[in-house]
Design a protein that fits this description.
CATH architecture of the largest domain in chain A: 3-Layer(aba) Sandwich
Helix content of chain B: 40-55%
Number of strands of chain B: 10
CATH class of the largest domain in chain B: Alpha Beta
Radius of gyration of chain A: 22 Å
Structural class of chain B: alpha/beta
Strand order of the largest sheet of chain B: 1-7-6-5-4-2-3
Order of helices and strands of chain B: HEHEHEHEHEHEEHEEHHHEH
Largest interface: A-B, 72 and 66 residues
CATH superfamily of the largest domain in chain A: Type I PLP-dependent aspartate aminotransferase-like (Major domain)
Oligomer: heterodimer
Structural class of chain A: alpha/beta
Strand content of chain B: 5-15%
Number of domains of chain B: 2
Helix content of chain A: 25-40%
Number of helices of chain A: 12
Largest sheet of chain A: 7 strands, mixed
Strand order of the largest sheet of chain A: 2-8-7-6-5-3-4
Order of helices and strands of chain A: EHHEHEHEHEHEEEHEEHEHHEHH
Distance between the termini of chain B: 52 Å
CATH superfamily of the largest domain in chain B: Type I PLP-dependent aspartate aminotransferase-like (Major domain)
CATH topology of the largest domain in chain A: Aspartate Aminotransferase, domain 2
Largest sheet of chain B: 7 strands, mixed
Number of domains of chain A: 2
Shape of chain A: globular
Distance between the termini of chain A: 43 Å
Chain lengths: 403, 360
Amino acid sequence: MKKPVYLDYQATTPTDPRVVDYMVPFFYEKFGNPHSRSHVYGWNAEAEVEAARAKVAAVIGADPKEIVFTSGATESNNTAIKGIASFYKDQGNHIITVQTEHKCVLDTCRHLEQEGFDVTYLPVEANGLLDMEKFKSAITDKTILVSVMAANNEIGVLQPIAEIGAICREKGIKFHTDAAQAFGKIPLDVDAMNIDLLSISGHKVYGPQGIGALYVRRKPRVRLNALINGGGQERGMRSGTLPLALIAGFGKAAEIAQAEMAEEHTRLLKLREYMYEEITKRLPAIILNGDREQRLAGNLNLSFSYVEGESLMMAIKELAVSSGSACTSASLEPSYVLRALGVEDELAHSSIRFGLGRFTTKEDVDFAVNLLADKVQKLREMSPLWEMVQEGVDLKSVKWAAH
Amino acid sequence: MTDLLEVGGNASSTHSFGQDARMVVDGARRQVAQLFDVRPEQVVFTSGGTESNNMAIFGALAASAHKRIVTSPTEHHAVLHAATAATQNGGRVSALKVDRNGLIDLTHLRALLAEGDVALVSVMAVNNETGLLQPVADIAAACRAAGVLYHVDAVQAPGKIPTRLADWGADMVSVSFHKLGGPKGVGALIFRAGVNIPAFIHGGGQERGRRGGTENTLAIGGAGLAAELAAESLADMPRLKRLRDTVEGAVKRLSNEIEIVAEGAERAGHVSCFILPGIAGDSAVMAMDMEGVAVSSGSACSSGRVTPSHVLMAQGYPEEVAKCSLRVSWGWNNTEADADTFVQAFTKVWHRLNKENTRN
């Protein structure tokens, strides 16, 4: 069977072949426990870990000492939010986050609510962006932590991180950003943006799965209680044997991302805009979810009105896409992110996230556009609602009879 | 595993890339389940043994009205430090008495359980520094009788001793796959059927809501294979035990001052912990490294610091003696030639360092 065209780069990215080639020797002749300080296997492993740490740090303008390796962005988010909450709980019990955050941030915050913390889940505007006035007025003298993601995983919108950072710094509130989707895709500078903690995922940036990092600011010093305790690795902030090969691969991925970010961004932006324009040229009644400008270059989230979501997904099986985030894609619930934007359930059901990335070609996009134009049109032809709309009926005025 | 680098999907995605990844994860889950003779749904993948230990300890406390954790002072730091961190808000840790071999005192365990307020007992299967085997089944029986959860840090067990969960009777078991030839960055927590604790890493609902985070497909695939190979390692154990015994015999013939920790107790066959009186463990390790032999002093995790082994200290060795240990472990790729190399190198090192000692 021919593989479908992969357009799900926000779920995970294929590991870059250059990363794979770089990683393989670390499983064989270059193995070693970077914590073994008394023999050459250990020393070489440690040198590689530190080189990777520097590569990751460079992407966000951090000092290598500020990078803590974790098993991925989910663990980083758990560590940052729980760790700050428990360390600074004497200074206050209020946390601010956003309704459209990744599930692991929201789940962690819900867990903290059970432990007695107050959490404000800020709404977003119809374009998916935070209203800064609403944000400012949510801050209280009990607020110890603000957690706002840099780029959304479903609709790709970029929150005003620098503005949020400036306000948090001024008020002495710790600022965490989940940058799983943003790292290596848009310029990030922890100093210029006043970021205190930043979560990174390896597999969203063409590195391996099972590895990520948490940036923890040293000046002014940010402290946290560790989530995973043990041998005291990563300066006590994250215990556990460091997975050398994964770290080496992650470092390589960061290095490539930094070198190629600008060029890749330009290419993907052009490709995405082309895709959006081609689809809307050929199909009426397409709604773009999330702001068009403040958005990841590789993300397009569209609602196809007057088609049924499940039928649409079935019809475009030749595309590997997702209707929401990967984590929730098995559930039939409409996306909570689209809901927060005010998208109606019916429309949310027929929404698709297209994720474009490093290996997406114009041919892939043309294939997707042609397939969508054909299938959506066919599905609409079968839809009585579409027929009514064509006849000029305002569906909102229709009074539906109960069965 | 290098084939798996091609899979690359997110195991939660419903499209075929995601489903390929899902198949890898499910296959590995079956292989790990087989190693413990449990059902696949009893296996939860984590990022490693340390996370598994933390998950079990924090989870048991969160799930229980009781506040106390009973553990042995010879446990790995991942258990000891997790227990300390988990109990810092109003709980406490009770240390079991151990003898000179590191064996826990079962009578003391029963007495602590009888005092009540125990949320969890955590005692490892195989000690990482000495190879000592704890009486897991007896501990499990005592815990079961008291209605207390029992967690086993079994990071050192697969491939070294049989690991059938039903024979152990434990409620939770931590595994780390790089200790059995698998990749680093993946572990598991095995649950007895019906045992449930709250999530430790919250997130996207992976692992049936028990552990958030995109599944680490590549490493999990490797973990599955490593679990399968553990059966072969177990079959290889008598050979390693013979290697070890040869080496221990040769070392003891060098000097009757050299002690082998837990020599008279039941030990796994792959490791020896030598005490070299008057010779600091790290000097011995360095000297051995110069002879081309990689060994360690204490456990690798704490070997960055020149601290005495907390395991040996807990067993009653004085601090200056606990600094003088040399850990030698054997794996599938070691041969009789390696054993000979070790003995020759060690003989040289022993004579040289001893001479330096007398000169000082």
